[in-house]
Amino acid sequence: MSNSRPHVVAVPHRHVEPRRITFEFEGTPRHWFGGNRVASVAVDALNLLFPAGERFFVRAVRHHAALVDDPELRAQIRGFMGQEVRHGLEHERFFTTLERQGFEIQRFLRFFERVGFAFVEPRTSPALRLSVTVALEHFTAHLAELALREGLVEAMHPSVRALITWHAIEEIEHKSVAFDVLRAVDDRFALRVAGMAVACALLGGFFSVAFVDLLLQDLAMGRTAETSGRLPFDLRRVGLVRAVRRYLTPGFHPDQRDHEALLAQHREALRPAA
Fold it and tell me: What does the alpha-carbon distance between residue 21 and residue 41 come to, in Å, rounded to a whole number?
């Protein structure tokens, strides 16, 4: 199906509203995730990808918004973009904390912008960029569920726990928005597969570079008083391969996983910070 013939999709009402929360990171230790170097650096590496990545998601979805006729989906698109903009701003504020801890991050950020958004993005079609966005949104929703359902946030320093909990809640709230935009404008399964392939390559590549760069810097700075040497979770529970398989199943839709009880539990925990 081409972009010139939008497909009518039924979109249920979903709560997709941005929350205006500002987080304070003063006193965040370098090994803030269960006192573990590897876990802390891994999430710090993801943090470096979030702000520019969130802006890419907004551009990809906004490009197709005019093709969406359903008023419910159009309202959800506005909520999606508002949430993503706020995520980018708050994660970017955490950059100052990383630099205060001794990390040099501007080198990677320049590389990320130059390769990902100055070189790759202009050389891909709007439809593929949207499909890549949908695939990456699937990963963020999967990781958000993992963080909340498996209690990983409980092992985090309170300053970062609040940020990750808020981000995870909103990622799950808008988990279906970009997917429904893609269904509405171009519902080819082949396009969805291509988007996942490109997303895996880009996310894997950029994350690996950021992780190795930060880990080498962290090792050079030495251990800290809170370093425990133990991962706060079992890596086998991450389940990224299962997430990809689920996404590539014909008939897949993000709403097939019910997160309402999980969201209700953690929205309540977040309320005092709002």
Answer: 24
Q: What is the pLDDT of residues 42-58, one digit of tens each?
A: 999 999 999 999 999 99
Helix, strand, or coil here: 150? coil
Q: Which residues pair with 156 in a beta bridge?
A: 33
Q: In 10 A of CB 23, how many CB atoms?
A: 18
What residues does each domain of the chain span?
Answer: 37-273
Q: Alpha carbon of 160 to those of 93, 156, 255: distances in Å?
A: 12, 6, 28
Please name the residues in contact with 118: beta carbons below 8 A apart, sequence gap of 6 or more: none
* 3-class DSSP state of 156: strand
Give the residue from 176, 213, 191 showing the smallest Cα distance to 73. 176
The encoded tokens of residue 234 equal 């079992």
- Contact, 202 vs 132, CB < 8 A? yes
Regarding pTM above 0.85, the answer is yes
Query: Is the backbone of residue 206 left (phi > 0), alpha (psi -120 to 50) or beta?
Result: alpha
